[in-house]
Predict the structure of T9SS type A sorting domain-containing protein.
Amino acid sequence: MDLRLPLLFVTFFVFGLVNFSFGQEKLSESALGQQILDYIKNNDKLNHLSGADISDIYLDRTSYSKQSGVTHVYLYQSYKGVKIYNAISNLAIKNNEIFYFKNNFISNIEDKVNVLSPSLKAVEAMQKTATHFKMKMEGTPEEVSSSAFKKVFAAGDLSQEHVPVELMYLKDKEGNLKLAWDLNIYTLDSKHWWSVRVDALSGVILDKDDWVINCSFEGEHTHTNENITSVAREAETFNVFKKSSFLVDNSQYNVLPLPIESPNHGSFQVVTEPADPVASPFGWHDTDGVVGAEHTDTRGNNVWAQDDLDGSNFTNGTSPDGTASLNFNFPTPNLNQEADNYLDAATINLFYHNNVVHDIFYHYGFDELNGNFQENNYGKGGDEGDSVVAQAQDGSGTNNANFATPPDGSAARMQMFLWSRAVIAEDNLTISGGTIAGNYNSVKPSRGNGADGPGNITGPSSTPVTGALVIADDGGVVPEEGCSPLINSANMAGKIAVIRRGSCNFTAKIQNAQDAGAIAVIVANHNNPDSDPNYVPYVNMYGVTDPEFTIPSIFINFDDGETIINAIRRRERITATIVDNGPFFKDSSFDNGIIIHEYGHGITTRLTGGANNSSCLNNNFQMGEGWSDWFALMLTMKPSDVGTDGRGIGTFANGEEIDGRGIRTRRYSTDVAINEYTFNETNDDRVIGQDADTGEDIKLNESVHYNGTIWATILWDLTWAYIDKYGFDPDLYNGTGGNNKVMALIIESLKLQGCNPDFIDGRDGILAADTALSGGVDQCLIWEVFAARGLGVAASRGELNVFNDQVEDFTTPDPSDISLANCTTLSNDNFSAADYNVFPNPASNILTISSGRNLGGVTLELVDINGRIVLSQSATLVRNVEIDISGLQSGLYVLKIIGEYNSTNHKIIKE
């Protein structure tokens, strides 16, 4: 609904609405049905919907926001009892009035449906899906339950969860409604939780969505090069909450508490009894709602944190045990070693921060009724049995983290991986003796994941391995490739094998060397850079063996390999020492920003479109990454921060200093010299790669992380506008500062914005949330922030299935708009002196106006001393705007900067 127009109010009484769960009741048969239907029929904005369009609507779910006093009602459109996929509209009720309606209903549905009955069976849709995603489906799965339009099948060897298959209509790009089977399959490797629509006639896969949201590295993309200088900062430590102890359970945790973002930002501290009395009334280790912990390890009502070193992705990992005293004050880890040596510390930090994020956002409205993650909801509504399974040092991948969010009542999963960039070690290989003595660069084996599971080729350890070097000989055409059992095993025993990379797997080479008695392996790249244009100097060796190797291996480049092999062939007496001196993997379970980011995906997925629907963030804009970055920034703010600082995401995991860019294309800042992104950036359709499955081009604005960065940029500006107005409060639970107010605003807006929102919907949801929370006192502030980044009144989303037709606009509403009645003014009468800079002055040719923020569309006029306008031009005042004054006579002029709601004058001297 357009918030710039007067809202239509319909009054009715709501009895017992707050605690009522509709359970997908037909709207016309409910207590609220007639009033809601009357609202739809009498609203001019909804008159395109016919009686047939609204005759088969269901009440999908309700939730109540204690912060705003709003009841949120989610409606599902159907046709003859068959749901229409994501045709979910939601309305907000406050003081017995409907004050907001987000329409996602489809009009003229009778003319758009293709058929009424499927020719493809539900089980056949499962088979088609399994074939499409190259999954094994043995036999016919057991049918667990069945109803008119839905069947549930046993998981079997196909999925980690039962597979529900429901008949639905899907709107295609032409606007037609195709009958389809909707199903979801949680793959055994946990990499995907596919939500799929299969054509109920042809069996073609029409649409897919992945409930597992991955946050891996994105390709580099810059418009300008940032010169970032590393700055040492003293870490700030303080309590982020103010509360008295409510539960004496003696629990204590040695962690990196908020607002510390990572080990680079601060030190480990022991935190005692941190569970919040409102959000976790029985503590973090309870599950039965009775005083006394049910678990003494890192498991409880909100999260079960464990390792997943083998990448099996099931709940069979280990969890640190704090014993009956709940003492998780484990030794502070030394991070300059292999990650599995500090596994307990990583798991404890992961457990702690999952609980902290749960407790903080409970206070802002992510609670039981709104689909939060809890085993036991303590009788407060919502579906339970869905705490987060958080897995530390997950062995199924690297340089990544992800969060899987099924609908309310099904457990979410967070996977945290080890991270590395170019893991080239400078002193892990030392040659002694002969003419080639010295340190050599090397690469350790990858812990990444392949088709057969996580790699387990053994790398070097902190214990040095020293021995003479022997070239492998398998008797083949290229004997030093070691692809067959070695024929020089008598000479190999007790020595270090040197093997060329070649025509067989790394595992075969290493196995043959180990069988021959070698104590370690050095694999040398086999390509000659002079003859091979695709020469790669290093690779991460990968492979799976059972049992694991008992000897270490490293990889060296071609040139060093040739140097070593030639020295051996010259019969030089040389030995090698292999030891792990780093660089070591970074554990993302210590990057609190990444933990918060991942948990944020769960929050946005559960709150957008209602907690029953996990596919409501599936469109081109994919704003979820932006909200998640924003969550991370919010919980790691410090009182000394300022908006113009540059904040990166994931700098620790990415191996950067604290002022690095991290894993995004821009740092977050209100300073446009650091982050100049506006809404128009969503049109950037340059090709950045190809899809591995289809070979189709991947464009930059199809990147969820890129578009997410643009959205988070705007939210970060909004945050600082609130802080500038209301101040900053370090109490993240019960504070009253601008940071607290904006967190409440965003959580409320997620409930209002509707299914499959775009940037415009997100903006309007925030405006509506301000109305719900405060009566609209900050409408002007919100409009100014969004307009400054191109989401003004006339901004357009374009077509949702088109990637490059968005139109930005920098104008704010007319101050007489009824929605701005509670505001003062949209802007000051004059630009602040801090808003712009004019230089050089005096000037001879080019006069530059530089703005530190987007001041929107302006007219620039130069007036001579007689009051005559001698030069005039229009511009968008952001970054640098130049005026050519070379044609003017020397003398004094007045520069007028005239905006829609403000203006200023500046004296200029023309030389």
